[in-house]
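Students often ask why inverse folding is considered easier than folding. One informal answer: many sequences map to the same fold, so there is more than one right answer. In these notes we will look at a single instance of the problem. The structure comes first.
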C-alpha cells in the first residue's frame, strides 16, 4: 500500500463538527436549501419523475459540462463540454489529476500553506514533493525566482491554489501569466485548485489558469461559492483534451459517474449562478467587515496574517498563544466554537476562521472566542506562578 499521511484538517473538523454550536471552521458559503434557491432565483427545481435512475451520463451531463465550460470561457478562449470532466467534488478532481499525471520518479512543487490534499496526494503516488513557501513580502503569492530554483529535470507538476486556503490571498493575472510562461518553458503541467473561485470579494477577479496555459488544469466545485457541498460535485477543466480523456479512463475505476440527481441540481444552480454568487459575495463581504472590526477591537489579541482578498477563509494570529491546537480543542470542547488550528497547515500560533457561514453564527461566535482567549491566558499565567 502507498504511504498515506493523515489528513489533519479533515480529521480535526470531523472530530468536532457535530458537537459544536458555532461553526467558524466552515469553509463554504452558508449552505443553501432548494427552497432558498427558488426564493433567490425565481426558478423552481424539478426532477422529471419518469427519468430512470440509471448511471446517467458517465462524464457528466452535456448540459452540466457546457455550463461549466461557459464559466471558464472568455473572448479568446472558448471552451466546450469536451474541456470538462465532472468529479465527486474538487477533492475527487484533485485526486484524479494526480492519479492521471503523477507517479514515482516525478517531482511536484506545491505552494505552502495550502489544503493538505494538494501536497499529500502526489507523495502518495510516489512523487518527490517540494514546498514553495508563500511569504508576506510576495503578498502571500508564489515567488517566481524561488519557483524556478525548485524546478528539476523531472518536475512534472506545479500546484497552486487561487484563492488560497487558509490565507485568502489571491494571485493576480499578471503573476499567473508569469507562472504559465515559466512552466511552459520547462514543459510542466500546472494544477490550479480554484475551488474558492469566483469568490473575489475584495479584489478584481484574476483569470482562471485554464485560460492562460494549454497545460493548465483547474479544479472547482459546487461546494464553496455555490453553497452546495452536499452535492459532492466538482470538475476538472483544461484546454488539454487528451489529459481529460486519460483522466476519464482512470475515473472509470473509482467513480463511474456522479449521481444523476446531483448533476441535475448542479445544472439548476449553475443556470442561476448569478443570483447565488451575488448572495455569497455579499455574505462574505459583510461577514468579513464583522471579522475586521472584531480583530481591530481585540486590543492585539488577534491579528490577520493577511487580510483575505478572496475565498471564505483566512488565517488569524492568536497573539501570545503558541499551542493553538490545544486552544482550538478547548474552544470546541468547552465553548462549543469550532476554529481550525494553524498547526494543520504547519502554522502554530494561528487559527483558520471561515467567514462564509451565517452572519448570526459569526456574530455569536466571535465574543466567545475572545472570552476563551482571555480565560486561556489567565489559566496559563496562574499555572506559571
Ligand atoms: C483548497 C481546497 N480544495 C478542495 C477542497 C475540497 O472541496 P470539495 O468539497 O469540492 O470536495 C477543499 C475543501 O475544503 C479546499 O479547501
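Output (designed amino acids):
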Amino acid at each position: 500500500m502507498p504511504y498515506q499521511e493523515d489528513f489533519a484538517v479533515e480529521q480535526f473538523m470531523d472530530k468536532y463538527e457535530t458537537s459544536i454550536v458555532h461553526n467558524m471552521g466552515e469553509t463554504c458559503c452558508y449552505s443553501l436549501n432548494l427552497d432558498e434557491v427558488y426564493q433567490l432565483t425565481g426558478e423552481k427545481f424539478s426532477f422529471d419523475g419518469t427519468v430512470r435512475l440509471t448511471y446517467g451520463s458517465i462524464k457528466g451531463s452535456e448540459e452540466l459540462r457546457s455550463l461549466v465550460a461557459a464559466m471558464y470561457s472568455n473572448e479568446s478562449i472558448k471552451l466546450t463540454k469536451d474541456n470538462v470532466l465532472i468529479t465527486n467534488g474538487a477533492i475527487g478532481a484533485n485526486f484524479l489529476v494526480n492519479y492521471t499525471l503523477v507517479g514515482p520518479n516525478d517531482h511536484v512543487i506545491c505552494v505552502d500553506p495550502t489544503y493538505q490534499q494538494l501536497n499529500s496526494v502526489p507523495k502518495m503516488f510516489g512523487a518527490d514533493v517540494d514546498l514553495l513557501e508563500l511569504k508576506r513580502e510576495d503578498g502571500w503569492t508564489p515567488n517566481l525566482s524561488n519557483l524556478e530554483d525548485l524546478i528539476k529535470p523531472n518536475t512534472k507538476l506545479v500546484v497552486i491554489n487561487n484563492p488560497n486556503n487558509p490565507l485568502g490571498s489571491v494571485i493576480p493575472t499578471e503573476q499567473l501569466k508569469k507562472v504559465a510562461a515559466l512552466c511552459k518553458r520547462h514543459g510542466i503541467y500546472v494544477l490550479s485548485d480554484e475551488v474558492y473561485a469566483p469568490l473575489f470579494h475584495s479584489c478584481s477577479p484574476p483569470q482562471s489558469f485554464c485560460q492562460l496555459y494549454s497545460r493548465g488544469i483547474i479544479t472547482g466545485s459546487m461546494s464553496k461559492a455555490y453553497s452546495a457541498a452536499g452535492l459532492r460535485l466538482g470538475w476538472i477543466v483544461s484546454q488539454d483534451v487528451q489529459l481529460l480523456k486519460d483522466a476519464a479512463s482512470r475515473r472509470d475505476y473509482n467513480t463511474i459517474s456522479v449521481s444523476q440527481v446531483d448533476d441535475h441540481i448542479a445544472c439548476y444552480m449553475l443556470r442561476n449562478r448569478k443570483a447565488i454568487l451575488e448572495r455569497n459575495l455579499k455574505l462574505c463581504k459583510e461577514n468579513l467587515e464583522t471579522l475586521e472590526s472584531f480583530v481591530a477591537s481585540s486590543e492585539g489579541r488577534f491579528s490577520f496574517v493577511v487580510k483575505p482578498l478572496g475565498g471564505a477563509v483566512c488565517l488569524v494570529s492568536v497573539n501570545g498563544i503558541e499551542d493553538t491546537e490545544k486552544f482550538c480543542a478547548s474552544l470546541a470542547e468547552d465553548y462549543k466554537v469550532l476554529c481550525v488550528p494553524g498547526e494543520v497547515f504547519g502554522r502554530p500560533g494561528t487559527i483558520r476562521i471561515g467567514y462564509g457561514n451565517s452572519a448570526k453564527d459569526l456574530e455569536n461566535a466571535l465574543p466567545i472566542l475572545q472570552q476563551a482567549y482571555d480565560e486561556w491566558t489567565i489559566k496559563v499565567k496562574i499555572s506559571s506562578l
